[in-house]
Each structure stands twice: as C-alpha cells, then as structure tokens.
C-alpha cells in the first residue's frame, strides 16, 4: 500500500574538477585539429582531416560539458527511499533503494561517521566534501553489509520518512532525545 509520494531534486555543485575537465576538453578541441593543420604543410589532406576532427570534437566537447550537469532525485513512495542520479536530463541511474525502517542511524555532519567503516558508500549530495551540511544515513544491505548514504534531504523528505523510521531514530532526529 502506497501512502504518499514525496520528491526532491538536488543539483550537484560545480567543483574545480568539473572546471578542469571543461578546460582540458576545450584545449584538446583546439590543439588536435591545429596539429593536423600544421602537419598539412608536409602531408597533403591532413588539413581536411584536422577540419573533420574539429567538427567531431565540437560534438564531444558539447557532450562532456552537458555531462557535468548532475542532479539527484530523492523520492519517498510509502516506506521506501529511492535515490536516482540524473545526468544532463538524458540518463537516469538508480543509486540506492532502501526501506526506511532499515536505516539504523541518520546524522548531520560526519563527526560520528568518520570513525566508522563501511563496505559501500552511496554519494547523492550537492557537495560530497561539505561534511557539515550533509546527512549521513547508515543501513545494512544483505549483499554488501553496512552501507552509508550521503545526501541532502529537505524537511519534506525527512517528514515523509518520519512515520516509517525506527522509534529511537525518530526521537533522536526530530526531538533531540535519546532513549
């Protein structure tokens, strides 16, 4: 039985790595065809090859640029939290699908989490390096063991999870009480 449906879309922040990828792509777009045009003085028709490489490179650079746009879609349908990664609005990939009652702990900030070890970590946050704002959910998957989910839920997502959480987790998260 599906009680309700709540959804949130989170855009991944642009990082220095994204900028470096874009700069390298543009540099290669210019340098490779120019090399062929330069070599055309010695070997005929390489200038034409350089021109076609430039045209093909335009498509590749566009694809690389657009692939840098990543969003995460968090959705709660009944008692299940489903997180999907969306790349440039053209490709969807499920990251994790977990029953909310299976979540053992949710903490904000990585003070407690940094000393723990996990078999698998799922990143679905705006910025994985922003440890003070990220939420860290600990759960166990039979195939992997203890897993960690790094994400940025809004208040609506947390409220949607509330009825299905373990009682002690709900008290800690919403009422700052521990049993």
What does this structure look like?
It is elongated, with a radius of gyration of 23 Å. The chain has helices spanning 16-39, 46-67, 155-161, 167-175; strands spanning 5-11, 70-77, 80-87, 91-99, 103-108, 120-124, 135-141, 145-151. The chain has 179 residues and is of the alpha+beta class. It has a domain at 16-67. Helix content is 35%, strand content 32%. It contains 4 helices and 8 strands, in the order βααβββββββαα.
Q: Which parts are unreliable, with pLDDT below 50 for 5 consecutive residues or more?
A: none
Structural class: alpha+beta
Task: Report the helical percentage.
Answer: 25-40%
Number of strands: 8
Main sheet: strands, sense, barrel: 4 strands, antiparallel
Short overview:
The protein is an alpha+beta fold.
Write the layout of secondary structure elements.
Blueprint: E1 5-11, H1 16-39, H2 46-67, E2 70-77, E3 80-87, E4 91-99, E5 103-108, E6 120-124, E7 135-141, E8 145-151, H3 155-161, H4 167-175
Parallel strand pairs: 6-8
Antiparallel strand pairs: 1-2, 2-3, 3-4, 5-7, 7-8
Helix pairs in contact: 1-2
Feature tags:
alpha+beta; single chain
């Amino acid at each position: 039985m599906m009680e309700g449906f709540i959804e949130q879309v989170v855009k991944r922040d642009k990082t220095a790595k994204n900028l470096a990828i874009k700069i390298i792509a543009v540099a290669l777009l210019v340098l490779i065809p120019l090399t062929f045009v330069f070599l055309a003085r010695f070997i005929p028709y390489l200038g034409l090859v350089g021109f076609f490489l430039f045209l093909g490179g335009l498509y590749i650079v566009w694809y690389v640029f657009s692939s840098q746009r990543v969003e995460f879609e968090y959705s709660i349908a009944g008692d299940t939290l489903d997180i999907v990664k969306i790349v440039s609005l053209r490709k969807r990939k499920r990251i994790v699908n977990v029953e909310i009652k299976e979540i053992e702990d949710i903490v904000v900030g990585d003070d407690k989490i940094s000393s723990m070890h996990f078999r698998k970590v799922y990143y679905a946050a705006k910025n994985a390096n922003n440890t003070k704002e990220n939420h860290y959910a600990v759960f166990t998957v039979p195939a992997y063991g203890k897993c960690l989910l790094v994400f940025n839920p809004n208040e609506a997502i947390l409220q949607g999870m509330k009825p299905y959480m373990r009682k002690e987790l709900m008290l800690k998260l919403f009422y700052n009480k521990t049993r």
